[in-house]
Design brief:
9-stranded mixed β-sheet, 2 domains
């Protein structure tokens, strides 16, 4: 990217291919109504993301005015902010953190000369060791600092950064902070050829600001096999070679706590005025994260209930099968057409995103069995690869 006239920094951006954006989209939660692209360049990233999440307003943050002609038609708002020098809240004069947002960035790669202000900020966020004597700081790290500083707790943050951030021993302190504080739960390793005109291999990381720690991290290897492996957080923090590290779990069977389904038909539940979720409700809310008020228990017959943290999957019906929702909060009865999948808390969103991804949906349809109506069996669901 050419230098913006208003800055002395060298911002080198590389256009994000659509297939990379598709990979990212398949692994997102749908709990935001705003999209922020930090360092939007010519807009390839925000263009493809916005086209897939049309319900969300998009904001492109870009310093280089030569790209504004490309950006203006494809985003709802365009901001000129030098993120190396100042944050979004500071630049806009905001007093509160930005909420209900999804933050994505393919930031400029490279380093800048260390300044006291930037160094102090990174240390205060535990992104840089307090005893660091580095003369130069990574630009990617500063962009990540802005995302963590300017957006509210729980915000989804997805960055495309050099693979060394995930594997290099120099970044173990950073990884520990992201794993322990910001719920780093997933990464996609991209092939070296993903971006033109650069030999740097990249990785896409997925996290949530201040959401706490996770014990397991899903690594999707898009550089070769395309398989997903789950690693203990200690392995990721240590920066071991993820290509040679053995998996901990690679199917739902190996991570599940339990699988069940409702006892009664939807008709029986309706006749007894029992509030419930049926397969048709799953279809209407497919891919959504749901919060509901607890419903009163049935006084005459014990029913099976979905509770907070459960993944609900429609198990039967040509138009319903495989559709899923994530019950983030609440309790409600379910019909016999709905499966409840319980997995450890730190894996719930990872497994849910896998199930609702295009590959996950195709896989569930492919394993459905039955001579007449197709159904998803427990054993079939358990064999689903992660």
């Amino acid at each position: 990217m050419p230098n913006a006239q208003s800055s002395n920094y060298d911002y080198a951006f590389y256009e994000t291919p659509k297939w990379v954006v598709d990979l990212i989209s398949d692994n997102l939660d749908y709990d935001f109504n705003r999209i922020y692209d930090l360092g939007a360049g010519k807009g390839s990233l925000i263009k493809h993301i916005s086209s897939q999440f049309t319900f969300a307003k998009s904001t492109a943050i870009e310093l280089d005015t030569t790209h504004y002609g490309d950006l203006s038609p494809i985003c709802d708002r365009l901001l000129s902010i030098d993120l190396i020098k100042s944050g979004i809240k500071e630049s806009l004069g905001l007093k509160r953190s930005i909420s209900k947002s999804f933050v994505i960035s393919n930031p400029p790669y490279g380093t800048i000369r260390t300044t006291k202000g930037i160094k102090s900020k990174l240390i205060s966020q535990n992104l840089l060791r307090p005893d660091s004597t580095a003369l130069n700081l990574r630009k990617e790290l500063i962009f990540l600092s802005r995302a963590l500083d300017d957006f509210s707790t729980g915000t989804q943050i997805t960055f495309i950064i050099p693979l060394t951030f995930l594997t290099g021993s120099n970044y173990s302190y950073l990884r520990k902070t992201l794993v322990d504080r910001h719920f780093l739960h997933k990464a996609i390793i991209l092939p070296p050829s993903a971006f033109t005109n650069t030999e740097v291999q990249s990785v896409v990381i997925f996290m949530r600001k201040n959401r706490g720690s996770t014990n397991n991290i899903s690594i999707i290897d898009a550089s070769s096999s395309g398989t997903t492996k789950i690693y203990n957080s200690d392995h990721i923090i240590a920066g071991v070679s993820i290509h040679s590290q053995s998996t901990i779990n690679n199917t739902i069977r190996e991570v599940k706590d339990s699988i069940g389904r409702g006892k009664s038909t939807a008709k029986s539940l309706r006749d007894r005025d029992v509030p419930h979720f049926h397969s048709s409700d799953i279809v209407l809310n497919h891919k959504k994260i749901i919060k509901i008020k607890n419903t009163p228990a049935c006084k005459t017959i014990n029913e099976n209930y979905a509770t907070s943290g459960d993944i609900l999957i429609a198990r039967v019906g040509s138009r319903c099968i495989g559709k899923a929702i994530y019950l983030q909060k609440g309790k409600i009865a379910i019909s016999d057409c709905v499966i409840t999948l319980k997995v450890p808390k730190d894996l719930q969103l990872q497994v849910f995103n896998r199930i609702i991804s295009n590959k996950g949906q195709d896989w569930l349809k492919s394993i459905a069995s039955g001579s007449c109506a197709k159904i998803i069996t427990y054993s079939g669901l358990e064999s689903m690869p992660l």
